[in-house]
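Cross-posting from the modeling subforum.

Setting up a comparison between two proteins and wanted a second pair of eyes on the formatting. Protein 1 (sequence, then structure tokens):
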Amino acid sequence: MNKPFEGLGPSPLNHLKDQFLLDPEIAYFNHGAYGACPRPVFEAYQRYQHELEREPATLLYREFTKRMEEARGGLSLFLNCESDQIAFVRNVTYGLNMVTQSLIINEGDKVLATEHEYGAVDRMWETVCEERGADFVRIKMPLPLESNSSAVELLKANIDPSVKIITFPHIAPETAQLFPIKELTKIARDAGAVSVIDGAHAPGQIKVNLKEIGADFYVGNCHKWMLSPKGAGFVYASRKYENRIRPPAISWGNISEGTSSLLLENDWQGTTDISSILAVQDAINFLNKNKWFETVVPRSNQLIKEFNEITLSITGMDDLYLHTDFQPPQMRSYLLPEGDHSSLHTELFHRFKVDVPVFLHPKGSMFRISVQAYNNESDLERLAKALKEMLR
């Protein structure tokens, strides 16, 4: 009988492990939470910071417009959209708040969401709807989902004339479900509702094509799967809504080039360190140089597939994925058996030097793994051994 992972052979990507600044003693499976920035990208980020401190007025005034246009241009090519449809923000939570505060939500309106939203996003919609007298409705979705069509039908069944906004994640953060994004966006469009997509985990893990998705708003992170430094995210707005969105802070609004409020109101936010934004292009260059979607993503997915059967045998729980359609290539969540798992994350880290997020989810406690270029078979073997001991 083969040992776990024996069939995979030596990884052709082991050289990439040295390209990251992560502690080599830790088996790090928490990329989905905080990301990890490669050395070349981090060094570029530091160069931009030095540039800012050497001559602040050049970077933040004289060259600001040109440098931001270049940054947006590179990201728009990566996401397949027009460069003037993107505004940089510090992260998805901030960007979604910007969108939400800009939308017209009246008393009696409904905001439709799934049960798979990020906790901070859930709280945001609850707060805004309560303040404006609207209803925030979460659609109950079973785990595992039966099929893409079942998810689509569940959404359609909850739409009525009072539904004005439909929001959903591209990849659910805790349950790690990849949703049929184009189909769900079409349903919102057909219903005359505004579509707002939380794309925190998608760009860099999958190829995101914003023109094909056709959402009204798509908010994503660059610091997670795109590997940029922390503090870089984006808001995409369709032409219909590009003049209806503004940031929480109203600044000068006349330094950036552009004709829409998306850019005029958002680009210039005073004395802000834009180094992480400028480094987004360096992150894209790193992905392209290492043929990310051709080599790293498939390899990560292969490791997860090999780990999957082992993990399910250890937990004794059902698989959360009936179909591969719902499986993101580099993330997977697993149900834990009944019991108190409130200390599992801490004990895995301190006893085994394994970093894995654990969620006390209403549908059952679960943990999530993110497999990235720096992970290898020995990391997964360590996690499997630790889980076997902890769950014994």
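Protein 2 (same layout):
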Amino acid sequence: MKKIILPLLFALVSLISFAQTNPNRMVIYPKGGDPRGYLVESLDSVMFPTVEGRVAADLELLRTDMDVPAFYIKVTRTAPCVAFQVAYLPSVTANRLSDAGLINYVSTYEPTFYSQDFTDGELKGTDPIEPNTDYTIVTVGYDQYRTPCSVCKVQTTTPQIPLVGEPNVDMSAADVAPRTFTVHFTPNKDVKSFYVLAMEPDLFEQQYNMFGPMMGFKNHGDMVKQFGANLTEESDFTWEDMNPNTEYRVYVQPLDAADTYAPIQTLDVTTAKLGGSGEAKVTVTLGDFKIEDWPDGQGGIIKAPSQYITFTPNDQTAVYHIIVYDKATYEEHKEEIQASLLTEEGNYPFYEEHTDAYQVAASTSYYAVAVAQNADGKWGEFTEYAFTTPEAPEAAAVKMGQAVKRTVNAEAPVFTPGKGLKATAKKTPAFVLSE
């Protein structure tokens, strides 16, 4: 064991940060964690001991009892492990955390240290264990210096508890169009209510993994309940503004008479194709030129010219992309701009006639550019509509060399959580482990 007394510590800090004449802080930068600083005057010494072997509390899940409810675990400490902490959390949250993050979580929410092994320990918490939910149980091993070391974890899915009756919702697609579809729902007598949500399957999982930890979702049913529509009787429900020729999954979360989640039911629906096999084409029509209010990017409002433009696809169009550039920039970078319009990345898909306002400069030449794809996935010819804006001496100028802005926001995606979501502080759970 090496021990460095205070004068040597000052010398060490001076070598690391020789530019400071009187260093009076020591800052430690852990991997995967936040730095922590100390006042040098408050330190007595710094030690660099060696602990041989793996410091861990090996974990084994024996069973789950939803009547208690509790997890029953076996915990065996390695020889250098003098104590451990233990906690459980939804796997959707645990999967987003590194080992350093899990150590921080456990130390924050569960301050209790256990210094003995458990052969059949009962782990309970004030945060209820939900049925049919993925959980991760975590132990953090500590050495004699109370240093958090190895993380051990076990993932499990809790069993479904008995339901009141057999809640079930029959469903069938009643009407499917390119941009809308309707599903008919028929709940049986054991369904108190049910929630319905439609999303692309991959997007559903992405959103669950992203927003689950932020919004406290423990399982998929929580997300369906939060963002789905609540129905209580036989109903037709229609989803609008969907993408053509796209597979969606309808998620149904039934609740029994005790408000317990029944297993989620699903129905896959593919929207109809839009367009035809002929050449897809977009017509551009110039609209009004006005001086209107625009945000200045700093919370204020400026007066600037606005050019309204209408894009009209023909009946062979399945989807189209649009952009408006000043003439000089477009002609200089035409190939790159057109190539970018043929990709999904960075281009909002349009399906019907669309009118938008663009912030432009007065007495300036522009191109409104569009390209459409037919139902067979074949792109048509580019539409290049050249125009010059009128004079407007009182208007503010806009920066050249960029695509001009639109006032109309792109249509909302299928799943749009509320704006300005904040992670809310949850009640600190207390975990109790007893033999």
